[in-house]
Design a protein that fits this description.
CATH superfamily of the largest domain: Bira Bifunctional Protein, Domain 2
Strand order of the largest sheet: 1-5-6-11-10-9-7-8
Number of helices: 10
CATH topology of the largest domain: BirA Bifunctional Protein, domain 2
Number of domains: 2
Strand content: 15-25%
Oligomer: single chain
Low-confidence stretches: none
Shape: globular
Helix content: 25-40%
CATH architecture of the largest domain: 2-Layer Sandwich
Distance between the termini: 15 Å
Largest sheet: 8 strands, mixed
CATH class of the largest domain: Alpha Beta
Order of helices and strands: HEEEEHEEHEHHHHHHHEEEE
Structural class: alpha+beta
Length: 291
């Protein structure tokens, strides 16, 4: 009884925030052709059904379904602010069914949309009945640039990404030390391990100027509140992110309760180029005693 009441209470608060800031709620089908999610979720996590020789997927996320509908619909050039509530279904994770709330911003100027997305994520987190949270912000463009600087081949890049996912900084440092000059080594280690926003921005511009200028991360950093930090060691398991990425954590919870970022290439399979950024909040946290 309590969990259902709390979920509806939070849901109503999030809906009110969406309406206040111009997000329109959208429905996404539970079932879709599996190719809609080829890049939308890890293939091993997708729950699949075969019907009349056609392979379908039980919705593993909302983002790919929203992109499909917008890409195949009559939407061209006008900024869209969309929202959703509902369950997604995946295998081999803590929850087979995850109840989510989230938003997507499409066809909007990149840096401004990134800032609005982060600001709305912060509003969502403030609406959750949690004692404390931290919003960690990175960029998906850093690891490819780092691999290029290190001269790594594709398999080695995958290994480096996994090491960062596992937070294995000891081995990461060994790889950096064996492939970089001492000055570069010290600076890049600090980029990956420091949580001082101003110094991270300075070091990023020095060692990765293309990433610094392409992401507009300095402008984004100026908008960050006290609960936001730059974490440039942050990486995502999904490969469709193209720019800013972020995750949020709350006290006494071992997994990210909010996850998002920029994904400008997800609509390519439908012949469209749709700049987009968004996030999802895992509302299962409301049943874990973090209120």
């Amino acid at each position: 009884m309590r969990e259902a009441y709390l979920l509806r209470k939070v849901e109503n608060e999030l809906r009110a925030l969406n309406e206040l800031y111009g997000y329109k709620e959208m429905l996404v089908d539970y079932l879709s052709e599996v190719n809609a999610y080829v890049r939308g979720a890890n293939d091993v996590e997708i729950i699949k059904f075969l019907h009349d020789t056609q392979l379908y997927a039980l919705r593993p996320d909302f983002t790919a379904g929203i992109i499909k509908e917008v890409a195949l619909g009559d939407y061209y050039g006008q900024p869209l602010k969309l929202a959703y509530f509902g369950s997604v279904f995946r295998k081999n994770i803590s929850f087979n069914e995850i109840y989510q709330a989230g938003v997507e911003i499409l066809f909007a100027e990149k840096v401004l949309a990134d800032i609005e997305s982060l600001a709305h994520a912060d509003r969502f987190l403030r609406a959750l009945p949690v004692k404390k949270y931290i919003l960690c912000i990175g960029t998906a463009q850093l690891v490819p640039e780092l691999c290029q600087k290190l001269g790594l081949i594709e398999s080695q890049c995958c290994q480096l990404k996994k090491l960062l996912l596992d937070r294995n900084f000891v081995t990461v440092k060994e790889i950096l030390k064996s492939n970089l000059a001492p000055e570069d080594y010290q600076g890049i280690v600090r980029i990956l391990t420091l949580r001082d926003n101003q110094e991270v921005i300075y070091l990023l511009e020095k060692h990765f100027p293309r990433v610094y200028h392409a992401t507009g991360i300095a402008d984004i950093a100026q908008q960050l509140g006290n609960n936001c930090i730059l974490d440039l060691s942050l990486v995502k398991r999904l490969d469709y992110y193209t720019g800013i990425i972020y995750e949020a954590y709350v006290a006494d919870c071992p997994y990210a309760v909010l996850s998002g970022g920029r994904y400008d290439n997800l609509a390519e399979q439908y012949g469209r180029q749709i700049p987009a950024v968004g996030f999802a909040v895992n509302l299962n946290i409301l049943g874990t005693g973090n209120d």
